[in-house]
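Shipment paperwork, digital attachment
Item: protein structure file
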Amino acid sequence: MGSSSGVVLEEIPSVDLMTELLRRMKCSSKPDKRLILVGPPGSGKGTQSPIIKDEYCLCHLATGDMLRVAVAAKTPLGIKAKEAMDKGELVTDDLVVGIIDEAMKKPSCQKGFILDGFPRTVVQAEKLDEMLAKQGNKIDKVLNFAIDDAILEERITGRWIHPSSGRTYHTKFAPPKVSGVDDVTGEPLIQRKDDTPEVLKSRLEAFHRQTEPVIDYYAKKNVLAQLHAEKPPKEVSAEVQKALS
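Attachment content:
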């Protein structure tokens, strides 16, 4: 928190300092939690993870973002990762685990973390376990946002966007007044290319192929919690609370 990070404590408004102190005091009594969130695109992980993060004072480790940050910051691991990417190779599992290892040392990760987007394979899960074991830690819970492909398809392929304003519609849950056009401007709505049935189908197939073994791996370790991710967010939140209590 020194001036090296460009932050001078004297310059921070008292109310912000107090808020942060109170948050830390409240957090100090919380149990440590090391969590993994697993679920297909559109299963609601993105809605729940900030809620869990705040409730349990965890840091959110999204491996994709962390890689980008490490590359931009030119950390030793970031430089290695960039070399691999420049060659068009995949970043090795060891590198990603190393980056997670580094990130876990930050003060915001003191009470634990939420891992999102990793591990995607059993080998990655094993490497992650090894790294945590070295520190005397382990994964406490894996939250599986289980949802039927058909429901996901309806959720995602029904999304339409008005590109210039960012207004979003859903053919079933929040349809425009006139089908296919924006309520305000009357301009045509588009679908993001990731939201088309074809793309979704291949993403889901890849997800199941890769992730089913990971889910089994954690089920055998008795740390898996199955959530009914098709339920409304409030109910999913309640299930999360129960799984983590």
